[in-house]
Amino acid sequence: MTQSAFTRSTLLRRSSALVFLGLMVLAPCLASAAHAQTLGYAPAPRELFPPEAATPDTAVQDEDSLLPDRFRRTVVNLDTREAPGTIIIDTGNTYLYYVLGGGRAIRYGVGVGREGFTWSGVQTVTHKAEWPDWHPPAEMIARQPYLPRFMAGGPGNPLGARAMYLGSSEYRIHGTNDPTTIGKFVSSGCVRLSNEDVTDLFNRVQVGTKVVVLPKGPMKGAPLQARSLPATRPAALRPAVTTVPSGRQAMFIPVSAVN
User: How far is Cα 233 from Cα 161, in angstroms, rounded to an integer?
Assistant: First the structure.
């Protein structure tokens, strides 16, 4: 073999070795790039896109399904002389009526005062609150010292989604965080509705509304007469609330400002 041929053969072998070594060095990089490209087009995990969080008001929209049929909101015939817009609370039968006029009313199931805490008379709605804070009165704390002195408004608050305050008294018409108490004698004198029902009533009632609370026992004169109409549910009026407003943002409107 000539010197020239030997040199060419040696160079060829060395070139092949260098190419092989280069491929060995580049192989991990190429694999990583291919892997990265594959990952780049992989679908994003579902956990990165959680479902839209439910707001407190959307959470109460199906609460009425928990109520017995006789306590679900419905329109009935009502024999009363009270003016349209008046609230009548039939304590003995645990119903609240919102008078529509023309011999009709919307009937709601309510929870009322337990034994020794029922009352009767005429009051006026003096102000209204959405998701109200709760300040248990001193008398209640004296009976139940374990109660908090303050609780911020929200789904866990016993006053529920809405409250309508009666006169200068401690009594309210309000929601509840326990709809199973509707139809029972359970409160310290307040009248409670399901959160769905109290939201509906809240949007119909104005500050200055007359509230007639009938006694639990036998009434003098003709009793309240209500007859059910064919099953209908009044249109619900739902505010577009996306946060839990504090009771400190409640509407305080003097009765003198109401026509």
Answer: 20
Give the distance, in angstroms, between the CA of residue 253 and the centroid of all CA atoms in the same chain: 24
Closest CA to 128 of 252, 241, 243: 252
Structure tokens at 71: 């306590």
174 included as an active-site residue: yes
The residue annotated as part of the active site, out of 29, 35, 127, 174, is 174
Whether this prediction's pTM lies above 0.85 is answered by no
Q: Integer distance in angstroms from the first to the last C-alpha of the chain?
A: 122
Structure tokens at 110: 């309510």
Question: 190 catalytic, yes or no?
Answer: yes
Report the distance separating Cα 228 and Cα 223, nearest Å: 16
pLDDT tens per residue, range 42-81: 444 433 333 333 445 545 555 656 788 999 999 999 999 9
In tens, the pLDDT along 101-150 reads 999 999 999 999 999 999 999 999 999 999 998 777 777 778 877 777 76
Contacts of 161 (CB under 8 A, 6+ apart): 56, 57, 60, 130, 131, 155, 175, 195, 198, 199, 202
Tell me the two tokens of residue 99.
Answer: 């008078």
Q: Please tell me which residue in 29, 35, 127, 190 is annotated as part of the active site.
A: 190
